[in-house]
Write a structure and sequence with these properties.
The structure is a homodimer. Chain A has a single domain, classed as CHAD domain (Alpha solenoid). Chain A is built from twelve helices and no strands. Chain A is mainly alpha-helical. The first copy, chain A, is globular and about 65 Å long. At the A-B interface, helix 3, helix 4, helix 9, helix 10 and helix 12 of A face helix 3, helix 4, helix 9, helix 10 and helix 12 of B.
């Protein structure tokens, strides 16, 4: 109990060290990412172990940390989204480097050719498409796909540039320095409640896990477990431009899964057993979020006035493709989560 | 052997009876379908048991039967394609009758709500969407989806009307009457080769099965067995307006599967054991064909000059959706086929 509180303190100090080190190298991408990550991590710990901490202090701290990680994250998010959408456009255009697969008649090889030949279109194709995206941007794309790519590039680059300025401003603001000071104080002295040193961390960590389990139980996992359930595209043409409401519970689970992971880290410290399944589930949910946002970006680009029909068509295909990715990510999460339940009796 | 030849004869006579009965009620949809089916079936038997039949006669007969079933099939194909695309447009617009599902926060119910609540979006949604498609066509769709639906309706109805006239002309033509006469002769006397009565049917049926097995072995079943492999959309934006070359081998397997089924029927006659898995595999391949053609129809509609961007966008989403259906059908086929191999040691 007490040792766990110390552990918690130690974890927070580690965060601070990463945080301040990153703050020193302000401006570099890696540092911003580290800063963002530690802000998110401290914020998560504050949330899970709230009863242990001085209430007024942590209520004041949390929104500041959320603001910081939110502001710092946007630039990277836009960059990753553009990359994802351009790679998808190339994949959808069948732009590949290796020789085309023989068509209808594949008499030679037969059964032996199937296992080796089959996955060519899958994992191997992705890096190839990305490579050719750099080599011959536009040349081999249809007019629509090329125009759609250019439109997305324009819109997302603009958004990224704005996010970059905002992040720079934030890092120079007095608001940021106040947060940094508080984190520095936190590293030396966590404002615990009087009862905290005697409190067991485990019930709080367990509560975080239970919140996660309850949220997962509310997900439509049965549907997600059936491949090609076409659920994610149900609102693909809906008049509502807002993010798909069906994605909400999944995003929520993504956050709860992260809180659970942080709580485990605070609880176990360096002795934390690696949970591969938790990792896989988290990755699936990250992919879910990325694809969901990329699909929304494609849909929103299609609402640009005066675009050519071919551009709009390509954006429609792209949107549906990313919604399909959303569905695939849910399936992957269901698979990972199911394994976890079987694995831990 | 000899009894099998009689069996074959008897099967052909049955075909003829269906065929002539249907020919008598010329014009009605059901009759045309029956006529088409029997033409296809005779043609298939001619193909599989070719060595038993007078070569000149069957070489002459086959293209005539193919012409007949092709001509008669087109009208129905256009009708089914339009229905499929309109249903998909409504599904994609989330047009449903039942109350909307509660969004991000589903605190009540929790674990208990999941098994019952989950499949709501799946099988239940489909008939509901179709129902509302009849009730409120257009009213709840976005402008783009409604316009896309109207465009598809115009184009496919025109194609269907043309196919209808062509079919009517065909049924009144001397070419049709010549085919009908030949089928009538066939019913009373199959022009077998002198060696035919002593020939075993089984090797020929086995050869048909082997052709099927070899074609299936050449399919990328390993990829198809991984849900969400995104293979079917690889050429979703390719500049080539031709049908997807990757679909060819699957269409080929569909035909070979049908020939195999007919050969089994001719071999076993009324004692034919029902093969549920063969049925499931065949249905998956039919769905594959339908979705592939529907996707092509959406892509081709998007190439109509002077359409609104919103229409093109909706057609893009629709195209991608149908290509997902193609991928889903391949997955279903892989599952059905895999079961078959496990089931028959």
């Amino acid at each position: 109990m007490r040792s766990q509180a110390t552990e918690f303190l130690r974890a927070l100090r580690q965060h601070r060290e990463t945080g301040s080190a990153a703050g020193g190298a302000e401006g570099s991408v890696g540092a911003a990412r580290a800063l963002r990550r530690s802000a998110r991590r401290i914020s998560g710990s504050l949330h899970t172990f709230r009863p242990l901490l001085d209430a007024g202090w942590s209520e004041e701290m949390r929104p500041e940390l959320a603001w910081l990680s939110g502001t710092l994250g946007l630039e990277h998010a836009y960059e990753a989204r553009l990359e994802r959408l351009l790679a998808a456009l190339h994949r959808l255009s069948g732009v590949t480097v290796f020789p085309p697969r023989s068509g209808p008649s594949v008499p030679a090889g037969g059964p032996a050719a199937s296992p080796a030949g089959a996955p060519v279109g899958g994992p191997v194709a992705a890096p190839a498409a990305r490579q050719s995206a750099q080599q011959s941007n536009g040349g081999t794309l249809t007019v629509g796909a090329a125009k759609a790519g250019a439109l997305l590039e324009r819109q997302l680059t603009l958004a990224r540039t704005r996010a970059h300025s905002t992040a720079l401003q934030a890092l120079g603001s007095s608001r940021f320095h106040a947060v940094a000071d508080k984190v520095a104080v936190l590293a030396s002295e966590v404002p615990l409640t009087p009862a905290a040193p005697a409190t067991d961390l485990r019930p709080l960590a367990t509560a975080a896990e239970e919140r996660l389990t309850a949220a997962v139980a509310a997900l439509p996992l049965v549907t997600a477990g059936h491949p090609y359930n076409a659920e994610a595209l149900v609102h693909g043409l809906s008049p509502d431009p807002a993010p798909h409401p069906q994605d909400g519970p999944w995003h929520q689970v993504r956050l709860l899964l992260r809180l659970h992971r942080y709580a485990r880290e605070a609880q176990y410290g360096d002795d934390l057993p690696v949970d591969v399944r938790l990792l896989a589930a988290g990755q699936a949910l990250n992919r879910h979020r990325d694809a969901s946002e990329a699909a929304a970006a494609a849909a929103s680009a299609a609402r640009t006035p005066r675009i050519a029909p071919a551009t709009a068509y390509a954006l429609g295909v792209l949107h549906a493709d990313q919604r399909h990715e959303v569905e695939a990510a849910r399936f992957a999460f269901q698979q990972a989560w199911q394994k976890q339940i079987v694995g831990t009796p």
